[in-house]
Specification:
This is NAD(P)-binding protein. The chain is built from 10 helices and 8 strands. By secondary structure, it is of the alpha/beta class. It has a single domain, classed as NAD(P)-binding Rossmann-like Domain (Rossmann fold), CATH 3.40.50. A 6-stranded parallel sheet has the order 3-2-1-4-5-6, sandwiched between helices.
């Protein structure tokens, strides 16, 4: 099975902090020396990555469809060998039905965590299909969350966006099977990240139980190099093994039944 070691040009969306940044830095140092393009909002962070030999693009994926389309078109022209995308950009807000809901945050969370990912995937598939037909393995690698499987009620909308992406990712994997376009889903537990500084009133409390970022990134890169379809770790692995094991086979069966029904 192809793995990330077969990638030649990798786009990491959300590479200015957290898991995305840590993976981008590690992937750039792989023996196969892939070209790594870091995408993010903060130019000063991108400048730091540029000093490490990464290509950079300043862009905020929390935007409208036309802007995403223009971004994809520019990127494919600039990097015609692009064969892998890691989707790490995300935002998390606390919410509950008792306090007034910030609708702008609601829309932004859904757009950034889910809609932008699905939009970019659909826009890039024709490019990947051409590369894949020529023998170059291609990869979509969304980062979801263990909270997609077992939600945390204090971040209800975040969990819903990640659950949507998790389910979409399973369907995408099955739809693309046999086309040399592969889907690997990273499913983090609670990991050291700026994400939690935005959503938690007690970072000190959270930091006592999260997995150190460096440790998590090392383990995740190892799994990517093995070509694992699902990459859950720690508590997210416990949740995955208990509630998700075997679900992908059911998704395959449902699709096969649907195709038989349509052809019959």
């Amino acid at each position: 099975m192809p793995t990330i070691d077969d990638s030649k040009c990798i786009l990491v969306i959300g590479a200015t902090s957290g898991i995305g940044r840590a993976l981008a830095q590690r992937i750039a140092k792989l023996p196969n020396k892939p070209q790594v393009i870091a995408v993010g909002r903060r130019q000063e962070r991108l400048d730091e990555l540029a000093t490490e030999g990464l290509e950079t693009i300043q862009f905020d994926v929390d935007t409208d469809t036309e802007s995403l389309k223009a971004f994809v078109e520019r990127t494919v022209v600039a990097y015609p060998k692009l064969d892998t995308i890691i989707f790490s950009a995300g935002v998390q807000y606390e919410s509950n039905p008792i306090t007034p809901l910030n609708f702008d945050r609601l829309r932004s969370e859904f757009n950034l965590n889910y809609l932008s990912v699905v939009t970019i995937i659909n826009l890039i598939v024709p490019h990947f299909s051409k590369l894949a037909a020529g023998g170059q393995p291609c990869f979509f690698i969304p980062i979801t969350s263990g909270l997609a499987i077992l939600p945390g009620a204090w971040v209800a909308n975040y969990c819903a966006t990640k659950a949507a992406l998790h389910n979409y990712t399973m369907s995408l994997r099955v739809q693309l099977e046999g086309q040399n376009i592969h889907v690997m889903e990273i499913i983090p537990p609670l990991v050291e990240s700026e994400l939690h500084e935005r959503s938690s009133a007690n970072v000190e409390r959270v930091s006592k139980v999260w997995i150190p970022l460096d440790k998590y990134a090392d383990e995740t890169l190892e799994a990517l190099q093995k070509g694992e379809a699902h990459i859950p770790t720690s508590m997210s692995k416990i949740a995955f093994d208990r509630h998700e094991e075997g679900k992908l086979d059911w998704v395959r069966q449902f699709l096969q039944q649907q195709k038989k029904s349509e052809s019959g």
